[in-house]
Amino acid sequence: MKWWPVWGLTKRLTERKPYATEQTVETKIKIFRKSLHIYPIDVGNSNDLNLDIRALQAPQYNIHRFGIFFADVPRHADVLLVLGRPTEKMVPVLTETVNQMPEPFSIVVVENEDPTRRKSQTGVGIKSLNLPNVVAHLTNYREPGELIAVLLKIKGGTN
Amino acid sequence: MTFLYLSFALYLLGIVLSLRRELSYGIAFAGALSSLVAGILALTKECSSPQFSMMPGLSIGIGLDKTSGIFLIVASLSFVALTFYSIDFGKLFSRKMAAWFNLSLFGMTLVISAQDSVDFLIGWELMTIGLFLQILERKESHEEAFQFIAFGEASAMALIIGFASLFLTSGSFSIRDGVSAALAHSQAAPFFLVMVTLGFIIKMDIFPFHTWVTGAYSKAPSNTAALLSAPLTLMGVYGIVRTLSLVGYSTWWGVMVLSLGAISAFWGAMQAAAERSLKKLPAYSTVENNGIILTAIGLSAMAGAAGTQPMIILSRFAFLAALFVAFSHTVAKSLLFMSVGHAKESLQEESIDNVRGIWSNVGGIPAAGILTSGLSFSAFPPTIGFVGEWMVLEALFQSYKFEGNAERLIAAFAGILIALAIGLAAFSMIKLIGYTALGPDHGRKTHQFPSARIKSAEMFFIALLILGGVFSPYIVRLLGYSNFLGGLLAVPDPLLILSSNPIFGVVSPTMFLVVVGFLFLIPYLLYHRSAKKSRKVQAWNGGLALTEDEYFTVPAYSFILEYVLRKLYLTREVRTGYTAEVTNKDAAEYLYEYLNKFVRKLSYFVGRTVMNGKISLYVLYILVVFVLAFLL
Amino acid sequence: MNRQIGILDNDRNRLLVHDGSEVWITSGKSSGASIDGQLDLLANRDKGIEGQEVFGDGVFDFRYGPVTGGVIESGAYHLFTYGERILCVNIDWSYKHRGIERSMITQSVHDAVGRAEDICGNFAFAHSLAFAKAVESALGIEVSMQTKKLRIIGLELERIYNHIYVITQLASAAAQKVMTSHLQAIYEGLLRLNNDFFGSRFLKGFNGIAATRKPINIEALIHLSRRINGLSDRFEYLYKRALESENFMDRLHDTAKLDSEKAMTIGVTGPTLRATGVREDFRLHDPDYEGLRCATSQMGDSLARMEVRAEEVFGSVEIISDTAGELRELSESGIEPVEHGRRGHNGTGSGIGYCESPSGLLAYHVEIEKGKLASVYAATPSLLGFKAITESLPGNIFTDFPFAVDSFGAYFADAAR
Predict the structure, then answer these.
(1) Fold adopted by A34-155
(2) For B519-569, what is each residue's pLDDT tens digit?
(3) Is the ipTM above a cut-off of 0.90?
(4) With an 8 Å Cβ cutoff, are A97 and B537 in contact?
(5) Which residues of C touch B558 (CB under 8 A)?
(6) Which domains, ranges and CATH numbers included, belong to chain C?
(7) Is residue C135 within 8 Å of C115, Cβ to Cβ?
């Protein structure tokens, strides 16, 4: 039997660097200063965004210290992370999910497809869906740190 | 007394006028009203008819004392609602049925008002036969009706033997004499008690004599099912109470009845939790509720036999609890069968899965009926079922007061079983309410029939269930148990029900309503008036609406429970090719299957060896039987 | 035993088959039509696995997806049940179908490598590798030794982080909170390591046709070797302790069991097949992988699959260390410079390329006309992985679901393309 929590505490895995982004975030909601619940929805990305969101839960980022939590259902979430470019069949599902979000909510669109290959892209452009409350649209997402910076801006606080 | 005669006369008139169904049920309604009045009058003043002396030691007569009065009121309330309900509901069935309905009401009233065992047995048989003929009303119900009459006759046989032994001991047929010391201490008393108790608990559907209920209840028309479930089992309770008034309390009897009751309550609740049929679930719930009543009576007997002052208080409280559960069960179960029958006839469906959405496709009142009665069976305050089950548990909590360790242990285990039973009952009632009354409407077509009187009967009982709970302190006073009422802190006297004296536990459904009203309902209403309009969306299910075949089914709701208790449920998961299902079996049925096989084998054997066509052997057989009968 | 993995024409005449060591094209008639069901599965691969149904009292279709907290990707599991017990499984991944193969047609082979990576982001390297090999085989291009070695490193890195991801998912499903957190830290460490050496957390945009698309600092590879060993040691420590945790093992043991015969009939490859005791790995037949230890296990349940994955992690770490050393020796001896960038490939031809992706055989068949793609067929491991899920899940209960599904390492993006 090992004292796992104690062993874990000695590892100091959480990194102490500031997360910054140039991405503009258009939000006026001030009530998420203390806690922000996010729900990621895959609308047809190539799965690397999904796995990157999983990595967001890693101790290196320790997002709970910022008061950012994953919700289990969109109905419990404040921010909907739309991951990727929607396939045609996911469009109604996405609109229904947005419809289920409690007010006030924000949507962050995350895409990572290479912009140089725009003409061979599949799926539906997210702009054509006219989703409400899209506060940020990350077109060239690279790593979770960017996303944390955006979420911190939505919270309206500092880390 | 006039009202009692009047109701008998009206029931007879109802039988005669059964060609006009509406009129016949209407007359029965008047009869029920009049017997209700008779019952109320009997609470204050005993009454009796002239006695007809038939032979030495046997004089026949009817009359009402206070105990009869209480039971007559409860039964009559059920009659009033059921007869009124049947004016519309009876149109779905044949004319004969009205006659049999009247006949069984006549029988039951006679059972309660009988002053001697002969009247009692006549009433008992009339009631059984009337109900038997009603079960036969539907096609293909011979097997179920036969099961009913077989158990009914077994009960009657036990009663005849019991009353015969009573006559041999005391030389009297009267069942109104009060406790006689000679009888209570005679050698024959245990035999009498066992036989009579057997007779009554068969009617109360106590384990293991409950196997007929599922078949008979589900096949019978719903007004008959309500009669079978509520007033008929009440007759069993009445019989047991009467018996106790004859021979007094004894510990061994209390322990026996308590154990049977607790096992029965648990077994009934457990089977109800896994039941998928709309009328079998209430049937098993009947087994459970009668088990609880019997447990309370058993506890009362155990405590009463101890004889010390605190134990007598406990005995009286347990008895009050039994009366309350009997009352709440009669009202709630009648209501449940009325509402379920209403829905079943509208939708022409048998299983809980197929009658979803009663609220929107059948109507708000039957749905509210299922909801209210279900909440009452789940012991939800402030319904009367809550008061009754609280009382039973409070009484069982006081088992530490017993002197002997064996009694303490037995009562404590009974308490565990009852608590489990109440929990499982809530589980099954949530299933019933959630799927039927409040379930999603799948747009089924309903079969229309006039239902104004059906709905008013349902509304009457919904109100009675809630008001009965809220004003339960007054019922306690009416029953003559004022010493269990009091006041404490902010609760004014006599709105508080006490479970013992000195105080052990208290409850006040009246104050509960007041507090909930002030602290919850009024703020909620205020909030509702000022709040913004809320957005309505469909249930969240992975981003898509549920399709017809994606709804959670009733068997799935209880499968985990069945699997965990698979040794008790005898659960089997059957998979053949592309079909799969889960089957359970009531273990008690094996007993009767075995009995059935044995009897068949025996009759085959007798047929082969004795009645094989040889006249000499047959004559010999008759001779032997005659000699045996003569000797005995 | 020959197993079909793809249908190249509409009348099921030209089939892509493999026998555990290589992949080739055969005529549908000669391969034995006993596996019609298999061909139906392959023909329906844009939509999912359907057609199985169970009826009975109380049996209903429990749909899990397309958007749930439990399944990350958008796809729906249809679990037929009478409550808790899973009776049969249909899987619908049409939500994820993007038609990437079609979008590759008429593109140049260089542009198409990136599209192949987009089929499944976490198998990006395997996809780019199999596609590149197919193009190289079609156009008859030779690949330099250094590029081959770099490809081995990329493929093994991908294997390591995917396997660790699967084990993290299993630990998380079993509520092994501390272990999950540490595994997540290792997983994030591996992604960062990918980023530091190959410029992408998911190894995208690195591999190209007959060359790498980016330059790489060979000197830095020694650090790679050191870092990956450090992470592997941390993983080994956790894994050894995980095997002692009875309630974790209990969830995995006997869950979603598959025997070797069934696994061969389904045609599933990779760790799922090796966990049933079959020693089959396409790397065994690759001369570049010398002395490969092929990890197998016997039980065929989720635990066995996890064991195989963990063993492969240790194996891959060794391969990376050795290969990095060899690369340094090559560069020090100054024999071949590392090629990178794109060169004109304007030939015509058709070819097959395949590799052992983290979840099994991944094969591409391409036809090229004057440097532009005329047809592409990707036979992905997840398709057969999902088939294995539908075959092994019935009889288990709902709570086994994450332990069963995650252990197969099958992804909707990979299967739906």
Answers:
(1) Rossmann fold (3.40.50)
(2) 888 888 888 887 777 778 888 888 888 888 888 888 888 888 888 888 888
(3) no
(4) no
(5) 83
(6) 100-416 (1.10.645.10)
(7) no
